[in-house]
Specification:
Layout (H helix, E strand, L loop, with lengths): L1 H10 L1 E4 L6 H17 L7 H9 L3 H13 L4 H6 L3 H9 L5 E3 L4 E5 L1 H7 L11 H4 L6 E6 L10 E5 L11 E2 L4 E2 L11 E3 L7 E5 L4 E4 L7 E10 L4 H4 L28 H4 L2
Antiparallel strand pairs: 1-9, 2-11, 3-11, 4-9, 4-11, 5-8, 5-10, 6-7
Helix pairs in contact: 2-3, 3-7
The structure holds 2-oxoglutaric acid and fe (ii) ion.
Length: about 270
């Protein structure tokens, strides 16, 4: 473990290979969730095939975007992984003393057919997660790809090694992220694109500068993300216990008038 801690402190990230050997379990649930929702049948077909089938009907594209942002990313099973003992042990070694959940855990689809459907919803520009988390200084992101990343035609993230040490960078407001100009990043920080296998755990500081790296015609990558902050950091009190997370934007324009189908009253009938 110590080698991960010293690598993390120096570089702002570390990779724990093969952290989640049963990643396939989540992955096949994801397939079943998607095909169950759109086709009312559960299949184990591969992700790109399912997504291609979904995109065949043009009306599905909007539904898929809504589904992805509002419901799909919040499947109950993913929440249970936030309390994984091993994960909590590792983040405590990385100096998170009193962990709290700085954002809902997320499933993220990137590249391939999924990336084409979601466009800029899923393509992150150069950023630090701290801007959207506004949590403790030591807050961190655990990233668990359920597919390969950075190889075999799967997208990945590019990071600037050690850039967490410079604190919060200057940004301009983007659509979904506070964005950093590449030219403003010090040349001291070496840029690397990480690659590896499904089930690896990549932990990075919320201050590490990074971005999505997308490959044209790639396969669809899918990643679980867990973000933790530390209640023991005095910065939280200074920020008046502010809680912010605006990454996975919920559906805000709720206009009941657009609903075609309303829940039927079953209460009277069944005398519940
Ligand atoms: O998985 C990715 O492509 C990067 C996502 C990311 O950086 C974020 O959601 O903050
Ligand atoms: Fe990020």
């Amino acid at each position: 473990m110590n080698k991960y801690v010293s690598f993390y402190n120096k570089n702002g990230y570390c990779v724990v290979p093969n952290f989640l050997p049963n990643y396939n379990h989540i992955l096949s649930n994801v397939y079943r969730t998607l095909s169950g929702f759109f086709f009312k049948k559960k299949t184990d077909a591969n992700l790109d095939k399912i997504l291609k089938n979904i995109s065949r009907k043009s009306e599905n594209i909007e539904i898929f975007k809504n589904f992805y942002l509002g419901l799909f990313q919040r499947q109950a099973e993913i929440y249970s992984y936030m309390f994984n003992d091993e994960l909590l042990k590792i983040i405590s070694k990385l100096n998170i003393k009193v962990p709290y959940i700085a954002s809902d855990p997320l499933l993220m689809v990137s590249g391939g057919v999924g990336g084409k459907l979601l466009k800029d919803i899923t393509n992150s520009p150069i950023h630090q997660d701290w801007h959207s988390m506004q949590s403790s200084t030591n807050a961190l992101v655990c990233w668990v790809p359920l597919t390969c990343y950075g190889k075999d035609n799967y997208s990945t993230i590019g990071i600037w090694k050690g850039s967490h040490k410079n604190g919060l960078a200057k940004t301009k407001n983007g659509n979904r992220f506070a964005t950093i100009k590449e030219t403003s990043i010090s040349k001291k920080f070496k840029y690397v694109e990480i690659k590896g296998n499904p089930g690896d755990l990549i932990i990075f500081s919320s201050l590490l500068i990074h971005r999505t790296v997308n490959f044209e015609c790639a396969n669809t990558r899918i990643t679980c993300q867990f973000r933790y902050g530390d209640l023991s950091d005095p910065i939280l009190l200074k920020n008046k216990a502010h809680f912010n997370y605006n990454h996975c934007v919920p559906l805000t324009k709720s206009d009941a008038g657009h609903l075609k189908e309303k829940p039927r009253a079953v209460l009277k009938k069944n005398k519940l």
